[in-house]
Design goal:
- It is a single chain.
- The protein is an alpha/beta fold and 491 residues long.
- The chain folds into 2 domains: 202 residues, Hen1, N-terminal domain (c-terminal autoproteolytic domain of nucleoporin nup98), CATH 3.30.1610; 209 residues, 3-Layer(aba) Sandwich (Rossmann fold).
- The strands form 2 sheets. Strands 2-3-4-1-5-7-6 form a 7-stranded antiparallel β-sheet.
- Helix 15 links the parallel strand 8 and strand 9.
- Helix 5 packs antiparallel against helix 9, helix 9 crosses helix 11 and helix 10 packs parallel to helix 12.
- Bound molecules: S-adenosyl-L-homocysteine (SAH).
Amino acid sequence: MFLTISTTGIPERPATDLGFLLHKHPERAQAFSTSHGTAHVLYPEASAERCTAALLLEVDTVALVRRGKGKGRGGAPDAALAQYVNDRPYAASSLLAVALAKVFKTALHGVCQAMPERAAAPLPLRVEVPALPARGGAGLVRALFEPLGWSTVEAEPVALDEEFPEWGDSRYVRLVLEGELRLADALNQLYVLLPVLDDAKHYWVAPDEVDKLLRAGDGWLAGHPERKLITARYLSRRWGLAREATERLELVRLAEAEGLDVEDVDNAVDESTDTEERPVPLAEQRRDAILAALHGAGAARVLDLGCGQGQLVQALLKDVRFTEIVGVDVSVRALTVAARRLRLDRMGERQAARVTLLQGSLAYTDKRLAGYDAAVLSEVIEHLDLPRLPALEYAVFGAARPRTVLVTTPNVEYNVRWESLPAGHVRHGDHRFEWTREEFREWAASVAGPYGYGVEFVPVGPDDPEVGPPTQMAVFTRTDKTDETLKEVTA
Ligand code: SAH
């Protein structure tokens, strides 16, 4: 996995100045240890006319997998070997971006004490990334780099296997950028856009990533036509963060348009570039999406139907807006684990009053479940045999009738994106079915109409342009407004 940065020069301004600007001497090969492996900087050519610096990252696959631990159910399947055998060592551009930020930290900030005027001025630059994973393809690569002042943006799809052209193209492109840009600008663009193109589903985004994004995007991101996509992907679609970033970028854009000093608007910039990353398990992204939807619906009294081992119940308990939380599951074993996780036996009285765990089957109507604000069915429907599904539909939408119902289920189209999932397999041994987006929408519409609900769909996890997100969520909202009508309907 590597990229090269080249420049040309004349005797008065030799190309080897690149070494000063990058703070890396052209005559020495240097190695730096990063959290994902060893980064090497070397100069394949260094003359007054032409100078090329190469950044090469040797990924430590074992460390990467250790770091990725906890990606169990709900994330990629636990096929242990597959975690070691994937494209990360060769192509992970998000890791390359992390290495770039660490190795060229000073250059990224545009600082060069030896030759400040050279650092501040545009240089003739050529950047090449021979194998860049690009979700969205060559078209998106051009849409991202072309507005940024490069005179040439070349994105050439890489064939899967040159000997077998009939196999078609891989999801990699060979990227070449040429133009007159400030070195710091070029580095900052790469730092943000490489992971955006990788659309790295493997990494966890810390809250201070918003600051990092805004700092690296200083001067180019606020006015970029694709700023929404860049922000959403860079922040791995953690909506809260993406929204915050979008709002702050909007402020920057307005300020720039009015000629204000951007620093006044956006001064929450931290100076650390230590980009520690952890994977965001899909299960966590799902919980975040569910919490956001519950907040959106203003729900306080919530049913978690098929609560399993109680992870969502635990998250709900941490939020005081949820005053009453009921976890229901058919499995006594799951409920026992949930009770232990929640420390029900050691809970203070007030906390304990907020939570109930019930054993019960969703295939039967249950009076205890009536009258709640919202019900969540997170990764539950696919555990029922299809012929049992109408019974659950009646029990939830017909009898319990909460104002809001959230249903999440795997999007089977996404399965081709799990590196370790053999074609045609479901994600979990107990899944009786997995649906495409189309099938899920059809089912949801067939339930919503007859039971008097409206339905909207929310993607959870990275929304792949071709196959959609790994998890799909339907948000059902009861259309009969008052509880009076409800009483009539259910009477
Ligand atoms: N909601 C959790 C667990 C999903 S696993 C999560 O998102 O992680 C599916 C759960 O549904 C299991 O705990 C299983 O015991 C439960 N389940 C399956 N069929 C059920 C039924 N008919 N009634 C109640 N729970 C059921």
